[in-house]
Specification:
Strand content: 35-45%
Radius of gyration: 45 Å
CATH class of the largest domain: Mainly Beta
Strand order of the largest sheet: 3-12-15-14-13-16
Number of strands: 22
Shape: rod-shaped
Helix content: 25-40%
Distance between the termini: 66 Å
Number of domains: 4
C-alpha cells in the first residue's frame, strides 16, 4: 500500500515538472555572424603584392563621346548630269568604278544639240556674208559709189550677225560642247548629235541613275562621283557642350565596324546655329582615307577632349568590373579590404573621374585589384 502511494506521488511530481517545462522556452544556440561577401581579409604576404594609395584629385580632361556618321566630303564630290535633253545610247561607267577627270561616263543622242549646232553654222555663215559685204561697201564708199548711210547700214548688219554668232556659240558651250568640238564644227560644218557626259573630278562612282535607252533631262543627276581619299565624320553635340568644342582641334573617333579602331583627325567645322528641334550643334571632322577603309554611312563615336578640370580620379588599373558595374577596393584596416561599387565618368589618359562612391583620402588598391578580387571570390562560401 505504501509502495503504491509512493509510486503515484512520484508520477504526479514528474507530470508537474513536465508541464512546467512546456511553459519555458529552450534556449537556442548562439548564431554565427554572417560574413560580408564584399570584404576580403588577406595575409601579410599577399598584402605585399598590393599597391595602396590615397584617393586624391587630379587634372583630368573630360572626353565627350558623341555618335557620328561617316559621310562623303562635300568639297570632294560631284553630281553630274546631262547638259542637254537626249536619249542614252552608251553607258561607259558603272557603280564602284574609278574614273578620272575628263572620262566619258555616258553618251547621248540629242536633237536639241543638233538643232543648236545648225543655228551656229547658220550664224557663222551669216557673219561671213556680212563681213564680206562690209569690206565691199568700204571699197565702194572709197570710190564714191555709195553713200555713208549705206556703209553704216552694212556695218550695223555685221554687228548684229556677230552678236547672233556669239549667242549661238555660248549656247553650244551651255549644252556641253568643248572648244575643240566647236572648232571642228566650224571647220567641217557637219552636225553631230552625239553628246558625252564627262567626269568632272577624279574619284569613284558611288551613285548611278541612268539606263540604256533612257531619255534624260538637264535637271536630272545621273552620276555621283566622290573622291574618298578624305571623308567627313559628322556628329551632333548638345548646345551645353558646344562651348567646349573649337574648330581646328585634333579629335579622335572609334569605328565599331573596324573592331573599334581609333582614328585621328581635325575639326573643320562647328556650326554657328543650333538645331531648334534637337537642340544640338553640328560638328565635322576631316579624316584621311587613302585605303578607303571608311565607307559613307558607317557608324562611329567621336571623342572630343574638353578643358581639364580638378576632380577625384582613380587609375584604370584600380577599377574592378563586376556584374557590369564598376568597383574599387577600399582598405578597411591592416588586413581587410572592401569591394565598393562606384560611379565613374569616361576614361581619359588611363584615369577615370569618380562621380559617386568614394571620398578623397580613402585608401584604395591601385595595383593588384584583379588578384585581390580573385582572392575574395575564393573565400566566398
Amino acid at each position: 500500500m505504501k509502495r503504491t502511494f509512493f509510486a503515484v506521488l512520484v508520477s504526479i511530481l514528474l507530470l508537474t515538472l513536465m508541464a512546467g517545462c512546456k511553459d519555458k522556452k529552450i534556449p537556442s544556440a548562439v548564431a554565427t555572424p554572417v560574413s560580408d561577401p564584399s570584404v576580403v581579409e588577406v595575409t601579410p604576404e599577399f598584402l605585399k603584392r598590393l599597391t595602396i594609395t590615397l584617393a586624391s584629385e587630379g587634372d583630368l580632361a573630360e572626353t565627350l563621346r558623341v555618335p557620328a556618321n561617316v559621310e562623303v566630303d562635300e568639297h570632294r564630290v560631284a553630281r553630274i548630269g546631262s547638259a542637254v535633253t537626249g536619249r542614252v545610247t552608251e553607258i561607259h561607267a558603272f557603280l564602284g568604278q574609278t574614273v578620272k577627270r575628263g572620262d566619258v561616263l555616258t553618251t547621248l543622242n540629242s536633237t536639241e544639240l543638233s538643232a543648236a549646232q545648225l543655228i551656229y553654222i547658220k550664224a557663222l555663215s551669216q557673219e561671213g556674208l556680212q563681213r564680206r559685204a562690209v569690206e565691199r561697201a568700204r571699197l565702194l564708199f572709197a570710190a564714191d559709189v555709195i553713200g555713208g548711210a549705206e556703209l553704216q547700214k552694212r556695218e550695223a548688219d555685221l554687228v548684229q550677225a556677230r552678236a547672233e554668232l556669239h549667242a549661238s556659240l555660248e549656247q553650244l558651250k551651255v549644252l556641253g560642247m568643248g572648244t575643240s568640238a566647236i572648232t571642228k564644227l566650224a571647220a567641217t560644218r557637219r552636225v553631230n548629235s552625239l553628246s558625252s557626259i564627262i567626269a568632272t573630278l577624279d574619284g569613284v562612282v558611288i551613285e548611278r541613275n541612268v539606263t540604256s535607252g533612257q531619255v534624260v533631262q538637264p535637271a536630272e543627276p545621273l552620276y555621283t562621283v566622290a573622291d574618298l581619299s578624305h571623308v567627313w565624320l559628322v556628329a551632333e553635340v548638345t548646345e551645353q557642350q558646344a562651348s567646349h568644342v573649337k574648330k581646328g582641334e585634333v579629335v579622335q573617333a572609334e569605328i565599331p565596324a573596324l573592331d573599334g579602331k581609333r582614328i585621328e583627325g581635325r575639326l573643320i567645322f562647328v556650326a554657328d546655329t543650333v538645331n531648334p528641334d534637337r537642340r544640338t550643334v553640328q560638328v565635322r571632322m576631316d579624316v584621311e582615307n587613302h585605303e578607303r577603309m571608311l565607307k559613307p554611312e558607317m557608324l562611329a563615336s567621336m571623342l572630343i577632349l574638353v578643358k581639364s578640370q580638378r576632380r577625384l580620379v582613380v587609375p584604370a588599373a584600380a577599377v574592378v568590373r563586376e556584374d557590369n558595374k564598376d568597383h574599387i577596393f577600399v582598405q578597411l584596416d591592416e588586413k581587410r579590404f572592401q569591394l565598393r561599387r562606384v560611379l565613374l565618368g569616361h576614361e581619359s589618359d588611363h584615369y577615370f573621374p569618380v562621380l559617386e562612391g568614394l571620398k578623397i583620402g580613402e585608401r584604395i588598391v591601385t595595383e593588384g585589384a584583379f588578384h585581390l578580387n580573385n582572392e575574395r571570390k575564393r573565400e566566398e562560401p
